[in-house]
Structure formats: C-alpha cells, structure tokens
Q: What sequence folds into this?
C-alpha cells in the first residue's frame, strides 16, 4: 500500500508542476478510512503532558512555583472549608546541592504540610492523580482553585521530569493513624497508580525536621499544630530564585492576603546562580539580624503598639521573621474568613451550550422528567415562580412542559429571553472578602510603611456572576521614594505574580489619577513614590485571561469597581499627605523661631547677664504655644476649622498610621516637653534610615554643649 | 611753635565717659525689657520708631524734616520680623562690647562682627551688609543715641580743604592739629565723626563754604586755587554726602556762621542732594537737628544755564521716564512744594527735556566754572534758597 502511495505521490508531483498534463488521475495520499484508522482518543492528561505551559509549567522556575502554589492553595481552601485556622509549612529541599555553578536547574523536593481536615483514603487517588477531577469546577463558589487541575498536574510534571511518584501523608482523623500513599499518574488513562499504600504515625513527616538548623527547633512542625492534615511531597526539576515571580514572593503575598494563616517556609540552602534581585516588598533578612530567637519576643519586632494608630483587633507588632534558614509569617488574626456558600448560576451568566447541557443533566437526574417550570426555579438563582411562568409564556410553552420536549428553536428563544429579562442581581453572600482590618493587618505585616488604608466595595455583578473588589495601599515609611509604585494583585486570595500588564487590576491602577492625591504620575503609567497598591478580586468565578490563572480579564463592571476602590484609598492618602505637608510647614515655622531664640538668648544674656538657658527655655515655650495654637485653629485656607482631619483619619477604621516611621511628625509636639520627641531609639537601630534626622534643640543643641 | 594741643581735657574725658555710660545703660535697658517680658510670658517686643514717610513731619518754622513719635513693635513671633529682631539684639550686644572695650567699628565691621551661622542651621545671621546697616539705624533711633555714641562710624567719604585749622582728637590718645590750607592736591579726608569733642575748630578765616557734588569738580576748584582766591572752605560729598560731611557743613554753618553754597548737577539727583542738605532726609529724620542746613543755597547748575551760558549741544543729556517721575516727587517735597522759584526751576528742567552735569561748563572752558560761573553767581547773588 505504501509503495503505491509513494508512486502516486511522485505522479502527483509531476502533474502539479503545471504542465497541464491531464492524463494522470489525481490520486489521494490517504483515504478517509486510512486516516480514520490513525485517529484515536487522546487522553486529557496526555494533552497536558505535551502542553505544560497551559498549566503554568513553562520553565523550571515557574514549574517550581506552580507546584508550591497549587499545593498551598489546596491547603488553605481545605482548612477554611474545615473551619480550621491554617498552619501551612512549605519545605523545598535541594537534592543536588553539589551541582556546578552554571547549572540552569536542579532537582528539588517540594513538600507542603497543612493542618486541614485531611483526605479520606478513597479520594486520595482522585485528588492527586487525576486531572480535571475536583469538587470546584461544577459549582459557583468563591474559592482559590477554580478548575481542579492544579496539584495533579504538579505531580505529573514531577513524574515526567524525575520519574519519582508523589508522596502523600494524610490524617483525616486524629485518633487513627495517617495514610502514607505514593502514587504516580498514568497519563493515558488519566488515573493514578498507587505504588505504596501504608498506615503510619509519621505525620507531620519527621524527616522534614532534619533539613536545617531552623527546622530542628521544636517549634517547627510540631505535632500539636498538625493534629489532622495532609502533606504532599513532589520531586521535580526546578529552579529556585528569589525576586519577582519567586516562591518567596508568592508566600509573602499569600501571607498578606490571608492573615488568618500561619505560614512557615524553609527555602533551599542554595539560590540559583544569576539574578539575585531584592525582594520586592521588604527584606526579612534585615529583621533576622535583630531577632534573637524564634520566640514570642522576636515576633514583636514591629512598631510598638502605642506609636501606631490602628483599629481595634490588629496587633501592629507582628512582622515576618527569618532565622536559621526558616522564614516565618505569623498569623495576623484569629478570625477565619466567613464561610462562603455555593450559588446557582444566574440566567444572565450562562451560555447557550451550557444551558443545553444543564437541561440534559436535569433530564437525567429527574426520572419522571423535569418540567421547564421546575428547571428554571431549581437550577438558577433569582428565578421566582412568577418569573418562571413569564419565561414559559415568553417562549409559548406550557409551564408543565418537560424539558426534554423542548425543541432547539425554543431553547434558543429561551436563551434570548434570559438576556433580555429584568431579573434581580445574583445573591452576593456567596463572597467572603478579606475585609479592611485583615487587609491592613496583612499589609502591616509585610510592608514597612507609615500609612495604610483599605477599602472594601459592595459586591457587584458581571455577566451574572457576583464579584467584590477590595483595595489597600501602603505609603511612605521605608518604601523607596523614587521607584514607581508596586502593584500586588490577588484573585480569590491567591496572588497573581505574572502578566502584570495584561491584568485588569494593573490597568485600573494606571487609569486612576493619582495626581489628585498629591502623587506624581507620568502619563499612562503608575505613580512614582513610596507606594504599594494592593487589589483583590473576589468572585464565584474569576475571569482569567488564560488557564494559567495569571491575569484578570477585562470587564467594564470589574474595572469600574476597581477604580472606585482605588480612588477611595487615594482620597484618604491625599488627606494624610496634605496634613503631613501642613505639619512640615508648621515645623518650618517653629524652626525659624527656635533657631533665632538661641541667638537671642545668648545676645541678651551677654548684655544684661541674665540666665541664658532659662531665657531660652521660656522663649521656646512661648514659641511652641504660639505655633501650636495656630496649628489647631486654622486650616490651609486660613479658615477656622473644627477638628483636625488627621484626628478624623485616626478615628477612621480603614486607616492605620505608624507615626514612628513617618519622616515628618504628624502631630505637634506636646507642650510640656522641653524638646521634640524623636523616633524611638530601638526602632532607629532597626530601620534603614532613608529619612534625614532632624536636629532637636533640647537634646543636641550645640549652645549647651 | 604753637603750644601742642592738649590731648583731651578732663572735662571732655569725663563727658565722653558719661555719654558711654548712658549709652550702655540704654542698651542694658533694652535687654532688660526683653527679659522682663519673656519671663512674664508676654511677647518680648522691641518698640522702634518708624522711619518712613508716614512718620516724618515737616517743621515749617525751622525748615527741617523731623521724625514723629510713631513707634512700631518689632516682634519675635512674626515670621517677617523674627530675623530682624534677632539681628537687632545681636548688634546691641556687639555695641555694648565696643563701648566696654572703648573701641569703634565701621558699619562693615559691625556687619562682620555679628555675622555668623545660626547655631544648628545652615543660615547666616546676616547675608549682606544691606541687612546690617538699617538695623544699626534702628538702634540709633530706638535708643535715642547717635551713631558715634554707639561707637560705630561709617566709611569716610568727602574731602575738604580751605582756610581752616582744626584739632583732630578722633584717635584715642592723640590730638592732631591739622591746617586745611596745607592739604596739597589731595585735600583732607573728612572723618566719619565730626563732633566737637573729636574735631575742634581752632582757627577760621574763611568767609563761606562751597560744597560741590563730586571729587572731580573739587579737584578743579582746588587746582585753580579757588579757596585761596575767594577765601573759603571747599568741600565735596561724593554724591549724596555722608553724615560726616553733612555734620561738618552744619557745624561750619552753625558754629562759625559761614554761609553754605552748593554746586550740584542740574538733574533730579542733584536736586535731591540739595534737599537733603537743606531740610534733612526721611530715613535720617531723627538727625535733622544736627545735620540739616535750612539756610543752604543752591548756586547751580541751573536749568537756564544752557541758554545763559551758551553751552554747546553736546552737554545735553536726555531726561528719561525715571527722571521725570523723580522730578515730580521732588517738586512735592515740603520745602520745594510752596517755593515758587523751585517749582519754576524744576519745571524749566522738565520742559528743557534734558539734564546737565557741572562738567558741562567745561564745554565752555576748562576753568570757566572756577573763574567765571561761580564768582559771578556769588556776586550777583543769583542763587536759589
């Protein structure tokens, strides 16, 4: 057969050279039958094995990150569903520490341990070893993983690159021993193959305690914190690097968006050779030089509580610590986010094909055959009995018509009616925003700024799906003043690390006019200044631009809400900055008098022999009183005002100010003090001073040396 | 040989010491006021007489400008005044030191003495001397003492020669007899302080004083031996004459009863100089008693001289807008306002449309001014009061 086809091929070529020989009959290379023989099913898993980039495994660095991300997402989701305050420990071990310096990648073992409710033995294969199997795909509920591809793909990737199976320890019941399971995914059958299936007391896995000095600390991965839970270990080819798009960044941002979680991270000892950038948000390393132990004391390295004006319930003293190779992101709050409930789809949010599928499913599940009337009310949200009859009337069918009896044109008409009907918006109690307190607590933990504010918008709807936007900003303090603002994006509490410019959140930041809030902003770009902008989109279904879940797709409703949230935060920042500038001016005024008073008291005492120091102090007190009085009475326009806007800010729950980090004092010095209070001495040591220290006369006055 | 003049009589010595004591007392009083108010938690203001037009009074009877009684409080707690407040006290302290040590300083010296960086800042107490001089004048008026009583003297300017002998006791411990007939081609530099205690008029045979505006003109007169021939005293003020020159003229006029004639440029500036010599100035109105010469006479240059002396066209300098404005202002000065002849004089200059310097007479002849112009005007008594 093949010989024949080769000959015919040759003939075909000859003919097609354009001589117009019509005597040769056009012979096909293949027939429909021969082609049919070659076609066969391609397993989904096979497809993804060859198209890893669709899932976020494009390159070794991203592969490592995605594996961690999927596992951590699962852990947090599971804990929240189980009503447990999450403890998540991530350990990355470098299995080839002696590789040459220019090696592009290495073999790592990634282990993620959580204290969730665990997984029952029956489900282990399905959860870890099967793509597109999960509880989350079919339902509209706000959760981190939307498609259920995640962890199985990581396991598959690990298997492909190292041949090693996933190792799972899970203890669903505190009284019973844990399961120890090792499995590998068969890509052709899309099923897991279990190679080890034991029971064990080894949970959490003790092996992890020997990884480095920090892990030998008894506080690390101790059994009381992990009564039930799951640990998954994957060996894979990856590349560990710090900086943007790194595991470190992911965990830091996750800690910020999930202040109820306690996250511990043990990075590999060796970082890949090139591109060691600074961490974008702050350097836990700096804290390490001042932390003596991973004890309660060390945790309180943040500003002391009385120099922070914070809403109740936030402990401003917690911050990230690193010691002995272990990075610890402490829990910022003991409040679990509220449980979200699942909702039915809204008529305006579905597509025709889905509608047809839903009808088919409804038929199947309803043995007596479901009626259209019931279908509409049960399967959709916000369809009342009256509305259901309206729909039936609109497509001219009796309400008791069975769904299976509908004709395609009728179904299409129904679909059209959906789009045009006036329906109440879908319910929004299916969403659990992070909340302004948690947003502030999270940012405070990770960012050393002087001003924090957060805003949670009311829920809204896009394409029939409820969503909610939250924004928070951190300004000033130790953030670099000359860099462009940093945008950190979240969707359903998961940080989005890549494709920033394609993301709707980023675009919303650019489109907001930060100039209105006293910041400089080049056209078409982010503002410049010591600013971190955080945006969180919570939704039952987050519209991503691709399967890798890296950027939020554009929807007008979503963009609008984002900008409104940003503007609200910006307004508060504007008030703070204006007040700060005003205080600066007052400081300058006070300075003028203070400067001259030194000279004056000296000259006067030279003339009449009066006590120079006493005279100085009494004049200084007068100066203080006069400038302070002026501060309180007049606002910028010179109009008498009631109440200090900064006091208003301080009483505003959505604003948090850390005065000790402010480069300018935001409140006038108290009148009883002889000198202004400078920054508290212990913090002076810790903070990297980008601010110029102002000389305070009473303490450092050369006149009195 | 004449008896060597006594350095300083006991009486004079005592007087100076007493005066210094009074000045010191006043300065300490100023500081005490500040201290008292400060400790009483009141604002320690320093009242300073206002040296502006608003506080200048024209004393018609005496023909001089005098200072009114308005005082303004200089405040410490006022952003616009705080620095001057400090500067005032700094200078007060420097002056007390000068008096204590029996030394003197020039204006510029005072500036340097007080100039330094304010402790704990990058700012200087004074940036330029222009900041410093007015502060010293403020102290003069607020303490009611003369500059020389503050032991501060100005850079000297002005030259004198003529038929007069003086005894100069300006250098402590010395008494120098100076014959102003023997000052040669350079003349004697008029000292900054010309008070009876420091400059005594010993012998005078001159009949009048001729005061010219510029040194170059003075040279002409000196070289042509004008003062010898006409038996006078010849002075120049280098433009607006400094206090020393004005004081000298005043004393010659008052004590020796010598008439004072002025030869100045025919332009608003020259007219202004004359008005200051005659009636005093607004900024130094408090000094008018001692410096103003209501009987001073204006010889020239007159606006009519272009025709009368038949001067060439080249001497004409066009008046600009500023000149006209200034001419208008001067025409409204108290002395000139009601003086018909002066109104005519200024009017003629303006209608001429040009001004003329004294040197324009050179156009006629090098020594025209010394040999013909001035002698003729004196003879004909052709001057303006």
A:
């Amino acid at each position: 057969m093949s010989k024949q086809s080769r000959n015919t091929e040759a003939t075909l070529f000859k003919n097609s050279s354009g001589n117009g020989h019509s005597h040769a009959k056009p012979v096909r290379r293949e027939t429909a039958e021969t082609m049919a023989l070659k076609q066969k099913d391609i397993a989904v898993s096979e497809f993804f094995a060859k198209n890893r980039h669709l899932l976020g495994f494009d390159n070794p660095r991203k592969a490592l990150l995605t594996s961690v991300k999927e596992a951590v997402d699962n852990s947090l989701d599971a804990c929240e569903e189980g009503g447990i305050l999450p403890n998540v420990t991530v350990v990355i071990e470098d299995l080839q520490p002696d590789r040459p310096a220019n090696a592009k990648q290495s073999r790592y073992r990634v282990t993620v341990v959580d204290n969730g409710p665990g997984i029952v033995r029956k489900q282990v294969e399905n959860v870890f070893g099967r793509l597109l199997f999960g509880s989350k795909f079919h339902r509209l509920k706000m959760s981190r993983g939307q498609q259920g591809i995640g962890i199985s793909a990581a396991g598959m990737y690990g298997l492909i690159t190292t041949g090693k199976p996933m190792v799972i320890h899970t203890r669903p019941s505190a009284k019973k021993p844990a399961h120890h399971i090792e499995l590998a995914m068969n890509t052709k059958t899309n099923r897991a193959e279990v190679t080890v299936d034991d029971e064990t007391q080894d949970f959490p896995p003790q092996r992890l305690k020997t990884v480095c000095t920090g892990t030998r600390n008894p506080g690390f991965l101790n059994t009381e914190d992990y009564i039930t839970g799951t640990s998954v270990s994957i060996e894979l080819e990856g590349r560990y690097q710090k900086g943007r798009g790194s595991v470190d960044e992911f965990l830091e941002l996750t800690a910020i968006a999930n202040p109820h979680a306690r996250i511990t991270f043990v990075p590999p000892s060796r970082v890949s050779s090139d591109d060691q950038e600074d961490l974008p948000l702050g350097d836990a390393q700096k804290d390490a030089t001042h932390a003596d132990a991973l004890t309660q004391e060390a945790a309180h390295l943040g500003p002391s509580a009385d120099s922070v004006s914070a809403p109740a319930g936030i402990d401003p003293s917690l911050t990230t610590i690193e010691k002995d190779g272990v990075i610890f992101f402490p829990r910022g709050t003991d409040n679990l986010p509220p449980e979200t409930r699942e909702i039915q789809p809204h008529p305006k949010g579905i597509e025709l094909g889905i509608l047809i599928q839903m009808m088919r499913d409804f038929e199947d599940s309803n043995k007596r055959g479901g009626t259209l009337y019931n279908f509409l009310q049960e399967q959709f949200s916000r369809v009342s009995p009256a509305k259901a009859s309206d729909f039936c009337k609109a497509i001219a069918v009796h309400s008791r018509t069975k769904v299976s009896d509908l004709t395609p044109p009728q179904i299409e008409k129904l679909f059209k009616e959906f789009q045009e009907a006036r329906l109440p918006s879908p319910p929004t109690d299916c969403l659990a925003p992070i909340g302004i307190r948690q947003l502030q607590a999270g940012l405070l933990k990770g960012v050393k700024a002087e001003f924090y504010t957060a805003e949670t918008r009311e829920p809204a709807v896009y394409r029939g799906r409820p969503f909610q936007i939250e924004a928070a900003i951190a300004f000033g303090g130790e953030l670099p003043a000359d860099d462009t603002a940093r945008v950190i994006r979240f969707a359903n509490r998961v940080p989005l690390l890549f494709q920033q410019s394609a993301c709707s959140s980023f675009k919303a930041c650019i489109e907001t006019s930060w100039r209105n809030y006293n910041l400089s902003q080049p056209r078409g770009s982010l503002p410049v200044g010591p600013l971190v902008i955080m945006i969180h989109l919570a939704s039952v279904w987050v519209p991503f631009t691709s399967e890798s879940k890296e950027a939020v797709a554009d929807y007008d409703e979503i963009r609008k809400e984002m900008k409104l949230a940003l503007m609200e935060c910006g307004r508060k920042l504007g008030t703070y900055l204006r007040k700060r500038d005003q205080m600066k001016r007052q400081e300058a005024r006070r300075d003028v008098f203070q400067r001259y008073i030194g000279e004056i008291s000296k000259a006067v005492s030279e003339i009449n022999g009066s006590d120079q120091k006493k005279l100085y102090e009494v004049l200084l007190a007068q100066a203080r009183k006069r400038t302070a009085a002026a501060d309180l009475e007049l606002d910028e326009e010179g109009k008498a005002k009631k109440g200090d806007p900064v006091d208003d800010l301080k009483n505003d729950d959505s604003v948090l100010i850390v005065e000790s980090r402010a480069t300018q004092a935001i409140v006038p010095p108290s009148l009883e003090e002889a000198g202004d209070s400078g920054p508290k001495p212990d913090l002076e040591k810790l903070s990297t001073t980008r601010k110029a220290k102002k000389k305070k006369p009473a303490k450092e006055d050369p006149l009195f040396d | 040989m004449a008896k060597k003049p006594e350095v300083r009589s006991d009486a004079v010595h005592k007087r100076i010491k007493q005066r210094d004591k009074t000045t010191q007392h006043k300065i300490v009083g100023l500081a005490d006021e500040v201290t008292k108010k400060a400790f009483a938690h009141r604002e320690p203001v320093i009242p300073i007489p206002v040296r502006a037009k608003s506080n200048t009074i024209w004393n018609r009877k005496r023909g001089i400008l005098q200072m009114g009684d308005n005082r303004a409080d200089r405040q410490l707690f006022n952003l616009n005044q705080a620095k001057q407040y400090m500067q005032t006290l700094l200078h007060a302290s420097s002056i007390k030191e000068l008096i204590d040590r029996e030394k003197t300083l020039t204006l510029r010296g005072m500036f340097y003495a007080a100039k330094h960086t304010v402790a704990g800042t990058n700012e200087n107490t004074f940036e330029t001397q222009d900041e410093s001089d007015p502060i010293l004048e403020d102290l003069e008026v607020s303490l009611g003492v003369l500059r020389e009583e503050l032991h501060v003297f100005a850079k000297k300017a002005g030259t004198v020669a003529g038929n007069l002998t003086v005894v100069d006791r300006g250098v402590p411990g010395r008494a120098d007899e100076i014959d102003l007939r023997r000052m040669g081609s350079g003349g004697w530099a008029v000292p900054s302080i010309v008070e009876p205690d420091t400059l005594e008029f010993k012998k005078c045979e001159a009949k009048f004083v001729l005061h010219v505006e510029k040194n170059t003109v003075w040279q002409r007169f000196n070289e042509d031996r004008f003062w010898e021939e006409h038996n006078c005293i010849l002075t120049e003020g280098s433009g607006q004459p400094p206090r020393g020159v004005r004081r000298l003229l005043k004393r010659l006029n008052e004590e020796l009863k010598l008439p004072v004639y002025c030869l100045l440029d025919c332009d608003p500036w020259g007219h202004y100089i004359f008005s200051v010599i005659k009636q005093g100035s607004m900024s130094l109105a408090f000094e008018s008693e001692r410096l103003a010469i209501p009987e001073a006479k204006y010889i020239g240059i007159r606006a009519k001289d272009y025709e009368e002396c038949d001067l060439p066209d080249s001497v004409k300098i066009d008046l600009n807008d500023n000149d006209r404005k200034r001419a208008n202002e001067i025409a409204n000065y108290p002395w000139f306002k009601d003086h018909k002849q002066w109104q005519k004089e200024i009017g003629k200059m303006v209608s001429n449309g040009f001004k003329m310097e004294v040197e324009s007479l050179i156009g006629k002849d090098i020594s025209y001014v010394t040999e013909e112009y001035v002698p003729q005007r004196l003879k004909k008594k052709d001057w303006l009061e």
User: Anything to note?
Assistant: The first helix of chain A runs from residue 2 to 16. Chain A is about 35% helix and 15% strand. The longest strand of chain A covers residues 465-475.
